[in-house]
Amino acid sequence: MFSSSRASHSGNGSHGLISTSAGDIAEEARQRLTEAGEGAKKRFGDVEEMVKNWVMTRPGLTLGAALAAGVLIGWLIKRR
Question: Per-domain residue ranges for the chain?
């Protein structure tokens, strides 16, 4: 009986150590993902601004490209 009590006590100690390590890893992962998300937002914002400017300066070409993409997608779907 004494040894089982002792074993469960030592098991709790290692469980706490594992939980702390897992918590540290989770926090580090959360920080890295947050930083990556902020970088992606900045890059996406830059690309979005470039596309808006391109569309505003070339509306005819934009419509032509959209029409061609629609025809191509329609043709690919019809082939099935």
Answer: 2-79
